[in-house]
Structures are given as structure tokens and as C-alpha cells.
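Example (one chain per record):
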Amino acid sequence: MRIVLLGAPGSGKGTQSQRLVERAGIPQISTGDLLRAAVARGTELGRQAKEAMDGGRLVDDSLVLGMIRERLAERDTRKGFILDGFPRNLAQAHALDHLLESLRQPLDAVVQLEVDSAELVRRLSGRRTCADCGRVFNLLTSPPRGTQALCPKTGQPHRLVQRPDDNEATVAERLRVYDEKTHPLIDFYRARGLLRVINAEGQVDTVTRRLAQALGVAALARAAKRKAPAARRATAKKRPAAAAARAGRKAKAKPGARRARTGTRVRRSRR
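Predicted structure:
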């Protein structure tokens, strides 16, 4: 399953990507993470990206595509992947199409997470990121709890920080840029028959179910459930026969066993 998640800032792409990773067993590929990792490792692509960022320039699309190509060559992407944060505009979408075509890994679906603008502002104001592991939470909709309460890197409670651009003063501008640059991707992927649109408002679990249904993950789960009862029925059919066989063996063995025990008692009594 090879998919792209689209949605305005605060639509829940990060949260739903993390959940989809757990359910579908495919990795999430974030271009931001790729850039940071390449720079940290000091690869050739990372060096070029660092030069661009240090110079205050945007990282060239060709560099990002090169990092995506390298990431898709790793073993864990054989079953598929989730692209989060790329493409952001039509030029990148065309370039991604060419790349995936050359790799013979075309997209299976593109999911647009739709959320009302007022709800986006509310969500963004509550979004927090762990300063150590980078996991995204939301104080309003998905705070850290249960097994997620501790940071996997430090073993301590998450050190939650707010991104500078997650305040209401900058949210409106970010949404305007999204509408101008990224929203046209919806028409691009709709024309290719890849687009799935889901309502991303409501409880996180509810949105996850909608996403799974749009991608067919839920159907796979139902198929697995249907197989399980069939296997149990087959096992149940075998059990009565096996039980009858055991009962028959016991029935044949018991008389002889009683005679042997009786004979022993008699011999001992004669002595």
C-alpha cells in the first residue's frame, strides 16, 4: 500500500500516519525527517541540503526526491509507505509521479483529510511536539497517555514544546499558503482516480476508522476475522472425533487395568 496523506496544517496527518503505521505495518516517510537525518549523517545529499538551509534558501526539489529515492530502496518499504509532507505543490507532484514510475512503485491512493478552518485554528493552538523523539501530540485531542506517556528515547515523560508557527497569529497565513500551493493537488490526484476524501473532524479513533475504511485496511481486518471463525470451526470438528477416539482407547484399557489391579490384590492377600 503506497499512499500520500494530504491536509491543511492541523488536519491530523501526523497523528493518523502514526496510527496507520501500527495498523498497516508500513513506514511513514516524512521529508522533514529525511532532511534532518541526511544532514546529521553528513551524506552528500545532506551536505547539499545543509548548504541551502544555512544560506536561507529552500531545499531544491531534486535533493528531496533524491532522499525519497534512497529511502524507498530500504527493505521496510517493500510492503508500501506513507508519504507525509510531500508533495506540497503541482511541480513536486509531477516529479514524484516520474520518480515512482521509474521505481515501479506507483501510488495506490491519496487521502485528503478535510477539517473546518475554525477547527484547524483550535487544533494548532493545542499541538505539541516532544523535543526528544519528535512525536506529535495535541493537548486537546490526543495528549500523551498510557504506553505513549514516556519518550522512547529518554524513558522519561515527553518534553512537550509548541512550534513557533502554531500560534493563532501565524495560522491564518499558513492556511492561505496551503490553499494557494497545496490545495490544487486535490484536483491533480482526483483526475488520476487516486483521491479519497474523509472527514477528519471528531474523535481521533473515529477518524482512524474512516481512514482505514477509505484505504481498505478495515476490509482486510474483517477478512482476517472471517478466517478466524472458519479455523475455529475446523478445529471444533476435529475435537469431537479426537475426544471419541480417546474415550474409546480408555474404554478398552480400563477392563484390563482393573483385572491387573485385582489380580495383584488377590496374590497379596494369599501371602
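Caption: Residues 219-238, 252-271 have pLDDT under 50 and may be disordered.
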